Amino acid sequence: MPAYAAGSARLKNGISFVSRLYYVLRRGWKWFAIFLTVTGPGIIVMIADNDAGGITTYAATGAKYGYGLLWFLVILGPVAYVIQEMTVRLGAVTKRGHAEAIFDAFGPFWGWFSLTDLILTDWLTLITEFIGMTAALSIFHVPPILTVIVVSVIMFLMVLQGRYWTWEKIAFLFCLLNLVYIPGAILVHPSVSDIIHSGVIPNFPGGFNNEMFFFLMANIGTTIAPWMIFFQQSSVVDKSLKERDIPWGRLDTAVGAFATVLVAVFIIITTGSVLKGTSVEDAAQASIALMGFNKWIGTFLAIGLFDAGFLGAICISLASSWAFGEVFGWAHSLNNKIREAPWFYGSYLILVGTAGAVVLLPGAPLVLITLFVQVIATTLLPAAMVFLILLLNDKERMGEYRNTRLQNALSVTVVIVIVALSTMYAVTALFPNLLK
Amino acid sequence: MMKRIREINRRYAGHHVTMTPAVKVALLLLRIYLLALVGILVVKFVLIVSGK
Question: Is the model more confident about A433 or about A49?
């Protein structure tokens, strides 16, 4: 072959490579842009799932068992995905929130039961989020009354701006702040070989006893909560996701499940490295203890606790207001202005205002409220999950998007295990000496 | 408010899901489960009130 022909072939190959690379990058960017547009409900609900109560549970788990239960949290990620993925399909296909879907499918009895239980559970959980936020900022000498007022105003401004898209992007910023636990964990210089050795292989440090069982159930309870089902389905509807967006919704949920496990793992690594063997009652106490070791690590945990409470609060209060709006037929979209949806925003304001006020009441039974949240949530969780599976199997409603046999096998197994364990958790919370 | 609730009850009256045997069994089990849970709560309440 003459030299000029070989050069020409190389040039052609070079151009071909550049054009292929350009095509691949452009396609990748287009896919990423679509993902950014569709993503939201899954990531937000999953990260908000690591709320103030969740952070306390993870901090206490690390302090008690070190890295020993990391493997268990890794399992809980897919479990949460299996449940939440169904809400994406149900919302995208029926264009209805979970509360309205229950009313429509199962009648007023189950509808009112679910709505009342949801509102009560959400309100009590909202109080626990305010407890977490005030406790976190008290570490920085911020008075609880100031925390409650400022947080309530920010929460209200977030929904009042009149666009779902904007609310979602602001929520994303708080989700990013939740990653503050990662530098905290890196600062403790954990031993990677110890993490792999004691955290990856399933084991029960100290044997499978009552205390271990209680911790396992507490971790499950923080991973799957009834409000998550209602929130994500309503969110998918408010975002106007269509059937064609379901694969993206699945990816969104999977990324969220990964992120929630990642955050939980890093919290356990932090407290498991520094506080192992100590008893942690709440995350604020863990933050103060960590500050004694390294000021920044404790600070990161406190900031993370505030952020977790805030994320939980914004999602829980919205889940309730959406549910109210769906059932009562009020305008209930974040795209509505306040004059277009006064009841929707009014119910949101009442929920947030009263929950915040309870925390400020002198002598309020905050410990009893925290206990009650676990019990009341247990009455709603099985109902919400059973309705979810039944609706996902309704051929007339779901058509080609109904559950496959594999999805049913997975979801039914998950529901049975969670219902059994969460029931035992509630019973042991009510009767602590029962298993001793 | 009561008028609105009655209207909601009318609008959603009856089941609109296909009532297969599996659905019926699931709803029955759910009723039994919730009744049992309410029973446990009542026991706890009685124990608290009686100071035990």
Answer: A49
Q: Which two tokens stand for residue A305?
A: 């606790």
Q: How many Å lie between the alpha carbon of B45 and the closest alpha carbon of chain A?
A: 10
Assigned domain for B33 exists: yes
Q: Which of A393, A397, A403, A418 to mutate to test the interface with B (most CBs of B within 10 A)?
A: A393
A105 at interface of B, judged by CB pairs closer than 8 A:
yes
pLDDT, tens digit (0-9, with 9 covering 90-100), for A243-278 = 999 999 999 999 999 999 999 999 999 999 988 888
Reported as a single tens digit per residue, the pLDDT across A67-95 is: 989 999 999 899 899 999 999 999 999 99
Domains: count for chain B: 1
Domain ranges, residue A281: 39-365
Split into its structural domains, chain A has a count of: 1
Q: Does some domain include residue A173?
A: yes
Q: Is residue A387 part of a domain?
A: no
Pair A58, A264: CB distance under 8 Å: yes
Q: What is the CATH number of the domain that holds A144?
A: 1.20.1740.10
> With contacts defined as CB-CB under 8 Å, which chain A residues touch B12?
103-104, 107-108, 111
Instruction: Produce one character per residue of B38-52: b if its CB has 16 or more CB atoms within 10 Å, e if not.
Output: eeeeeeeeeeeeeee
Task: Name the amino acid, one letter, at A350.
Answer: I
